Amino acid sequence: MGVSRALLRYLVSLSLIIHAAVTTANFFKPFNVSYDHRALIIDGKRRMLISAGFHYPRATPEMWPDLIAKSKKGGADVIQTYVFWNGHEPVRGQYYFEGRYDIIKFVKLVGASGLYLHLRIGPYVCAEWNFGGFPVWLRDVPGIEFRTDNVPFKEEMERFVKKIVKLMREEMLFSWQGGPIIMLQINACNGYYCDGFKPNSPNKPVFWTEDWDGWYTKWGGRLPHRPAEDLAFAVARFFQRGGSFQNYYMYFGGTNFNRTSGGPFYVTSYDYDAPIDEYGLLSEPKWGHLKDLHAAIKLCEPALVAADSPQYIKLGPKQEAHVYHVDTNTEGLNLTQYGSQSRCSAFLANIDERKAAVVRFLGQTYHLPPWSVSILPDCRNTVFNTAKVGAQTSIKTVEFELPLFSNISARQQFTVHDEVSYFSKSWMTIKEPIGIWSKKIFSVQGILEHLNVTKDHSDYLWYITRIYVSDDDITFWEEKQVRPTLTIDSMRDVLRVFINGQLTGSVIGRWVKVVQPVRFVQGYNDLVLLSETVGLQNYGAFLEKDGAGFRGQIKLTGFKNGDIDLSTLSWTYQVGLKGEFSSIYTVEENEKARWSDLTVDAVPATFTWYKTHFNTPDGTDPVALDLGSMGKGQAWVNGTTYRGHG
């Protein structure tokens, strides 16, 4: 990432080397943060730190206190979060810090819990987040090129970074003000294993800013899973081999609310197989196994911070020990003098993936399962082995209050049994019009790029034109037994083709070729192309040029007098859906709409709005909408959108 030297100096002065100030906040006594080659130094003391990755917009504010508390109970010292530029500055110069984007409230909750905060301002975050966290308006800045040594990009980036830093400072949230923020953006190791990582200077400590404890999911893809044993092994090896700061990405993944999923084609859930699941429930045995690991590492912390580096001892062909002690001469070590407050700690590793091993260490015998690390806080007694899970597996039950089986009638599918009181007896519906629905349209010759028109205010863009079909064309198709075909060189993400108001075909994919047979009648025909995005690209080079919609030639083939180049025609453009822009989902506006009862014989339309009412369920268990039987769309509860894309 290109960053000006002035900005770097500005950030460094506020991050790793943080000097005490006179003003104070209510969370901590003001303290300095610095570092040496071994670790972060907090208030004059080296620390071994466990961090829990948790993105505030991926949970509701009501969930934040419980999630922070569960992170702390699980052994975390730090909460790490990105700052999401497109959420905070949706329009250039207009900032938003409310609801799920109330970052000040979030940081203060972290501080009130006694945890530190690692604030990753970005401003590029990737994070499987729409457009990588960049606001879409950024691509319209003249001359801009993202994430490179480009003056317009650096100026915009610097403006936003300074805005966030100023906001944190005004709220007295930096450590030198008594706040929880101990670090800003760090560039360090990201990956599944980082025990071999070396920083770019021998004077810097080893940080692991993204320990991938799972992975994201694409529509139609498998749900990824990383075993708790392997994750614990990776973390133990990191601290064994000299690491000092480790962050789980993610400790809580949460939900991509609204239209924030990146992609394209990333699912709304950002569960990530994290220790705390999407709904805020503990994911066992992962959470409990890691909690035990963290406790073992904390027992080793006195030795880990006292020693500048470990002593390496080879125990076998694929077995090794790392010993942390102020006196690295283990041959003369008298183990009897060390108890629970020992400054001698050891990690015994078996990196053989298949075979267990029996090793001798400091005169004692130890059994090491395959691919495991044993932790000895006093260099004698094993308190934890990464392959031995003591936490119980959690069994989560889901109670379905609304049947969603495809083999039942529409009436049954959208109502509940008499004995269930949560949902109303019936659903209501409105069909969304196809094509032009407002006066806010315009016509130009040619095919325009999707994002240049929508500015990502909606996933949907209608392209509308008219095609004249002669009697000769009809006769030609009948005689040759062929059909005209719509061809597009390249398209992303979803295309729906309508002829005279009827859905003719759909295509899904990322920059795929379209070959769609169509059927016209004699005379004028309305050709409507609906381009839909399912999350904007969130990583890679030239994001500002990626775009959406169509690329290359777009034409109709199979006509008697040759192909029709559709890029030469006049097209009318309509952004979004009528119900979307009239806010039909809000409490105020939905009552004004002309809803009708959903009948048993209702014929599903291509786009349909549904609504119902339900009573708030008793208790504090998570409440979720199961949209497994639905297509692409969104869901709102009391006017707040909870699900997007899909």
Automatic annotation (TrEMBL):
GO molecular function, one term: beta-galactosidase activity
Catalysed transformations (reactions): Hydrolysis of terminal non-reducing beta-D-galactose residues in beta-D-galactosides
GO cellular component: apoplast
Domain Beta-galactosidase beta-sandwich span(s) in chain numbering: 338-389
Keywords (A to Z) from UniProt: Apoplast, Glycosidase, Hydrolase, Secreted, Signal
Pfam families: BetaGal_gal-bd, GHD, Glyco_hydro_35
Listed name of the protein: beta-galactosidase
